[in-house]
Amino acid sequence: MARTRTVGSGGLKGLPEAPTVSPGSVPGRPVALAMALAALLAFGSACRDEPPLTGARSLLRVSQEAVTFPASYPRVERVVELRVVNAGRTTLDVEWTALTAPFSASGLPARMVPGEVPVRLSYRPEATGVLTATLVGRAPGGGEVRVELRGESNPYPDCPTPVACHTSTFDVATEKCVEAEEPDGTACDPGNACIQGATCTAGRCKGPERVCDDGNACTTDVCNPLDGCTSVPAPPCPGDGKCQVGACDPKVGCTLAKAPDGTFCGPERGCDAADVCLDGTCQRRDPPDNFTCAPASPCQGPGKCKGSVCERPAATALVPDWTYDAASNGEALHDLLVGPTGDVTLVGFFVPALLDAAGPVPVRASTSGRRCMLWNDRLLCMDLPLSGQVSLLDRVTGAPRWTFDLTTARPDFTQGLTTVFMARLGVMQPDRLAALFEAYPTGTSRNTLCRQYFLVVLDAFGGMVSAQALQDPLLAECNHPHPYGVASDAAGDVYVAFGPTQNVGAPLYPGAPTLVMAFSQDGVPRWRKTEAFAAGELAIVNGLLLNERSTQALSTRDGQAVGSQTFPRGLGRALATSAHVIPSPSEDDTVGEWTLEGYALPNLTPSWTHGFQGWPGPVAPEVRLASWTTWPGQPPETVVVGTGMNATGPVLFAVSAKDGSEVFQCPVSNAATPAQFLELGPDSIVMMDGATTCGECDPPYAYSQSRFRRFPIPGLKPAEEPWPGTFGGPGHDHHEDPVRGR
């Protein structure tokens, strides 16, 4: 009798029955064994390709007894396929328990012939959380299967705050935030009170400018991006340059009127002969005694004729009308800015801002450390490092108008970063602000010299116009790359000068090379260039980019060197009128004295030199452009104002920006050195001294406890010029004047 082996209901699916073998049939035995071995190998391969079936003792089986769906989100479906198997040879009737939402199943077999059936399991939650369920199938005579279901639903991640005319939504398919432009014509908020009816155009919020007119020809009607229309006194009406002076009629505007008798009108200004105005015409006369023959200065009365001699009273030292000594209060205050009404704000690196310091009672802004500048008639302040915030504050009360927080607005930038803080600010336009944020890279401590930078452009109301992470090989070096210079031109394009740092801890000493990056007023990259010189503060005039540690100007168009002219001793903290670039005062070893030089635009050819003859020096590098009326009845002129040491001590000087001639020189009371920092206000100048750390680092004079003094100087005004000071004018506005800078 032949021996047989049969694969029954508990056997291996797909394995063929072994053939009947006779004991005497020896030759056929190798063939049968080979066939059986091949079938076993084929089955093993199939088992590796598919999940193993469960319920080995039951005819009814499933490919897995526990199903965990991929993590989902509310109203997002997740699907898993399950295999149900009838491992027997007869048809099975199967009863299944019902599933309730958010779980469901389709394709569950009620009658199963031998073989397998795919079943679609679905999980579509309506809310967040974790839910479970059990699916049970019973087949009389065929056994039972149980499948445990588990689904998790997470909240939708917050997408970065979209900029104007863009949406930012979470794509559940890619599980990423996707930004898209709003359709053209969509109403939008321009972040500027001077733009009305704004709509989206190619992803930008644009609209017509608001027209302001108060009906008075003697005022200039302007629109403030925060406050709307306002009026300010119009610039003085021009005269004819001789004996007709400008006057203004509110209805018709500028007119001419006779100059006061005795006004100088020609080159002759002596006590024996003088060109003066008489009844509106210029005439040469022999002036009488007590005729004003020399102009007054801040420290000296006018010269008067006595016979043929122009006699002047002795100069008296300038005396402050307000003093604040931070050292006496133990405060690390080492920077200042002066508002348009003369209010003074003192700030430090890690201390609260001291607002309206020139008033009767100083007012604290908050308990947060701040470094501030002026923008739209308010204080624009960085918060204490490690916060990543910038705020716009009322100048006197310190009340915030708005606060922008990078961590809140762009969590995708700051995810994983333990430390984010403000690095630099730069005004681009009345409704555009460049805010540069600094961070320690993920996985580093505060001791690291590695950095990451993010450039954000904000509108007047603190809304985000654009945001980007800055990338460059120089910024990837772990040598504390730092933005030592930030400035913008009249078009609103912004320029940033990065350089490595030579030391650890503030204040930071810049090294070389310098990476200069240029961006449009909306933050779009324009160009970048690496220069061999060390990084420093920037100044801009008429398409020229001036770095304080460079000896050559660069073009704002493409960063290339302009012309062959180089500055013999570097630019320093340069000034710029519409006609001249004026580098910082410097010591000229070839002539053995301190000098101030003017270079004519546009070719930067040497134009004039003012020598501080007999001065032992030093002459402070910090200078400003001021408006000063030298002669009564004559239009004001632009002068370079600065401080230095002459043979008798510290002095305040003014030099004509037009030709380098001396305008006045005044001793400064109770001072041992020139001013380390100064700012102009209306009819005043505020000086700082007593600082003990580096002034050409960033931040300048960090941690110093300085002394601040305000000197009243009637008639002295901040100049309206393209670049009137280190940071672009009173309040460090970092911006080329958009009207007179062209």
Written overview of the protein:
Helices cover 4% and strands 40% of the residues. By secondary structure, it is mainly beta. The chain has 3 domains: 60-153, Immunoglobulin-like, CATH 2.60.40.10; 166-206, no CATH class; 322-718, Methylamine Dehydrogenase, Chain H, CATH 2.130.10. The strands form 18 sheets. Strands 45, 46, 47, 48 and 49 form a 5-stranded antiparallel beta sheet that branches. A hairpin with a 5-residue loop joins strand 26 and strand 27 (344-347).
What's the SSE blueprint?
Blueprint lengths: L28 H21 L10 E3 L3 E3 L9 E9 L5 E2 L1 E2 L6 E4 L4 E2 L2 E9 L5 E11 L3 E11 L12 E6 L4 E6 L17 E3 L2 E3 L12 E6 L3 E6 L10 E6 L3 E6 L5 E6 L4 E5 L2 E5 L6 E3 L8 E4 L2 E3 L10 E4 L9 E4 L5 E4 L6 E2 L7 E2 L6 E5 L2 E5 L6 E5 L6 E6 H4 L1 H4 L5 E10 L2 E8 L12 E7 L5 E7 L2 H4 L5 E7 L5 E6 L14 E6 L5 E7 L6 E4 L2 E4 L6 E2 L19 E2 L3 E3 L3 E3 L4 E8 L4 E7 L12 E5 L8 E9 L4 E7 L5 E6 L9 E5 L2 E6 L17 E6 L4 E2 L24
Parallel strand pairs: 2-10
Antiparallel strand pairs: 1-3, 3-8, 4-7, 5-9, 6-8, 9-10, 11-12, 13-14, 15-16, 17-18, 19-20, 20-21, 22-23, 23-24, 25-56, 26-27, 28-29, 30-31, 31-32, 32-33, 34-35, 35-36, 36-37, 38-39, 39-40, 40-41, 42-43, 43-44, 45-46, 46-48, 47-48, 48-49, 50-51, 50-57, 51-52, 52-53, 54-55, 55-56
